[in-house]
Amino acid sequence: MAINEETLNALLGKMVTEFHGHTKQINGVGDLMFYSKTGGTPQSGVFTAPWDGIHGWYLKNDSPKDVVAILELAGFYAIEK
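Now predict its structure.
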């Protein structure tokens, strides 16, 4: 099935993406930073974490269609579930 550019842009606009990081909490207190929040536009680049802690992505599909998210990583990292 071919998707025209207008339909593709409408679907991407319903994809919420967020890239964030937070420090480990001590006594319930920690720092949180949002590096990026978008409405589904493709992103690429290089990232060096400003602190030790947890850094990750939140993806939410608000469209009626299934989507495939591709995340390519390189460097030193651990995958947490």
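The CA atoms of residues 28 and 51 lie 18 Å apart.
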